[in-house]
Specification:
Layout: E1 3-11, H1 15-22, E2 35-42, E3 45-52, E4 55-67, E5 71-79, E6 82-90, E7 96-104, H2 108-116, H3 119-138, E8 172-174, H4 176-208, E9 213-215, E10 227-228, E11 235-238, H5 241-245, H6 252-261
Antiparallel strand pairs: 1-7, 2-3, 3-4, 4-5, 4-8, 5-6, 6-7, 9-11, 10-11
Length: 269
């Protein structure tokens, strides 16, 4: 299933200047968003590299018709399946109507989703706006090619004219940006889960830390209400509220010193 995009814009420059600038294909990255490079292989062959919505695409296109100050029409010969034309109409008073018609076949889930969101249509509209700003601000074309290609009667090419590029999936794929976005989302979800788990663990630790441990003799440890001492290797039990109110000592070393001073010794088993 193919998608067709049609956009028109009026630029405030003479038709020859607008057309001349459009023939400078290798300058397209200056005003076409997502286009990484365009290489002119010959008078009628172009190689494109673009990235739109996280998908990197590469293709070659053949110019089917080129008429100075009137039209450039093309169709892909390999890579991304697309075809279309750009026409120029002199409106007089140094104004030109530039009309873009593009037909393409989205490939893969990412491109199909992007197609539903009209991403390519929005990209085309933005490209024409940037072309207008570019040519009007420069005041002149950066170059010109006034030759002709093909003959009359080509009309506006569609995806059927780019049929030989179909099935050429080796030059299309998911870009590193899209993959990184997916990995980043997974990492963020994992981090959130870990943070939530750690918060619960911290709350539990805080509530347990309110108890007051006291050293036990081996005989006392037989009572069962014990937990291991932190780093001391001794068993400890929790003081009751009555013991704390009665002034029971929760410092094992202090208790030992007191016993030594009184000449008494702890019982042994």
């Amino acid at each position: 299933m193919s998608t067709r995009v049609e956009k028109t814009i009026i630029v405030n420059v003479p038709v020859s200047r607008a057309y001349n600038q459009w023939t400078q294909f290798e300058d397209f990255p200056q005003f076409m968003g997502g286009v990484s490079s365009v290489t002119q292989l010959s008078d009628d062959r172009l190689q494109w590299v673009a990235e739109i919505a996280g998908v990197k695409r590469q293709w070659e296109a053949r110019i089917l018709e080129q008429v100075p100050d009137r039209k450039v029409a093309w169709a892909a010969t390999e890579g991304a399946t697309n075809a279309g034309s750009v026409t120029f109409e002199d409106l007089g008073g140094d104004q030109t109507s530039v009309s873009l018609t593009l037909e393409y076949e989205p490939e893969g889930m990412v491109e199909q989703v992007g197609d539903k969101l009209n991403i390519v249509e929005k990209q085309a509209e933005g490209d024409l706006e940037r072309f207008k700003a570019f040519i009007e601000s420069e005041g002149y074309a950066t170059g010109a090619w006034r030759g002709s290609v093909g003959g009359a009667g080509v009309g506006t090419p569609g995806v059927e004219d780019a049929a030989e590029s179909r099935g050429d999936s080796g030059k299309a794929g998911l870009s590193g940006k899209a993959v990184a976005a997916g990995v980043g989302a997974a990492a963020a979800a994992t981090a959130a889960a870990v943070a939530g788990s750690k918060s619960k663990s911290d709350d539990t630790s805080t509530s347990e830390a309110t108890s007051t441990p006291v050293a036990l003799t081996p005989a006392e440890s037989a009572s069962g209400d014990v937990r291991s001492g932190a780093g001391s290797g001794e068993a400890t039990r929790l003081l009751s509220d009555e013991e704390i109110n009665a002034g029971a000592n929760d410092d094992p070393l202090a208790a030992s010193d007191s016993d030594d001073r009184s000449g008494e010794r702890r019982g042994t088993v």
